[in-house]
Amino acid sequence: MKLVKFLMKLNNETVTIELKNGTVVTGTITGVDVSMNTYLRNVKATVKGKNPIHHDFLSLRGNNIRYYILPDSLNLDSLLVDDAPKRVQSKALARAPSGGRGRGRGRGSGKTGTKGFFKGGRT
């Protein structure tokens, strides 16, 4: 299971997130998208060396997140079960592609090339 798919299942969980700039954010997850952008409510953000700031809602860009600290009460076994249906490849897609009509340089269109060399024209 991919990490983002796991994080998407953490709705309504209270987590602590440390950002790359050292800021620590604690709040309840309302959503996580495929870019790992995380949306929180009831947030307490503590910038490094400053007093905490409270926000009703906060969005964090995924590439700014260093790591998530999950609550100890979280049941990881049930969240890590991969419930997505597995895709089955058809027989046509499973084998190697044939490459079309041979592997040469192609048949050519006749508009370029020797300019009448074989027809007795000048070269």
UniProtKB/TrEMBL annotation:
<dbReference type="GO" id="GO:0003723">
    <property type="term" value="F:RNA binding"/>
</dbReference>
<comment type="similarity">
    <text>Belongs to the snRNP core protein family.</text>
</comment>
<dbReference type="InterPro" id="IPR034102">
    <property type="entry name" value="Sm_D1"/>
</dbReference>
<dbReference type="GO" id="GO:0031981">
    <property type="term" value="C:nuclear lumen"/>
</dbReference>
<dbReference type="InterPro" id="IPR027141">
    <property type="entry name" value="LSm4/Sm_D1/D3"/>
</dbReference>
<dbReference type="InterPro" id="IPR001163">
    <property type="entry name" value="Sm_dom_euk/arc"/>
</dbReference>
<dbReference type="GO" id="GO:0000387">
    <property type="term" value="P:spliceosomal snRNP assembly"/>
</dbReference>
<feature type="domain" description="Sm">
    <location>
        <begin position="2"/>
        <end position="74"/>
    </location>
</feature>
<dbReference type="GO" id="GO:0010468">
    <property type="term" value="P:regulation of gene expression"/>
</dbReference>
<comment type="function">
    <text>Involved in splicing regulation. Facilitates post-transcriptional gene silencing (PTGS) by limiting the degradation of transgene aberrant RNAs by the RNA quality control (RQC) machinery, thus favoring their entry into cytoplasmic siRNA bodies where they can trigger PTGS. Does not participate in the production of small RNAs.</text>
</comment>
<keyword id="KW-0539">Nucleus</keyword>
<dbReference type="GO" id="GO:1990904">
    <property type="term" value="C:ribonucleoprotein complex"/>
</dbReference>
<dbReference type="InterPro" id="IPR010920">
    <property type="entry name" value="LSM_dom_sf"/>
</dbReference>
<dbReference type="Pfam" id="PF01423">
    <property type="entry name" value="LSM"/>
</dbReference>
<feature type="region of interest" description="Disordered">
    <location>
        <begin position="91"/>
        <end position="123"/>
    </location>
</feature>
<keyword id="KW-0687">Ribonucleoprotein</keyword>
<protein>
    <recommendedName>
        <fullName>Small nuclear ribonucleoprotein Sm D1</fullName>
    </recommendedName>
</protein>
<comment type="function">
    <text>Essential for pre-mRNA splicing. Implicated in the formation of stable, biologically active snRNP structures.</text>
</comment>
<keyword id="KW-0677">Repeat</keyword>
<dbReference type="InterPro" id="IPR047575">
    <property type="entry name" value="Sm"/>
</dbReference>
<keyword id="KW-0508">mRNA splicing</keyword>
<keyword id="KW-0507">mRNA processing</keyword>
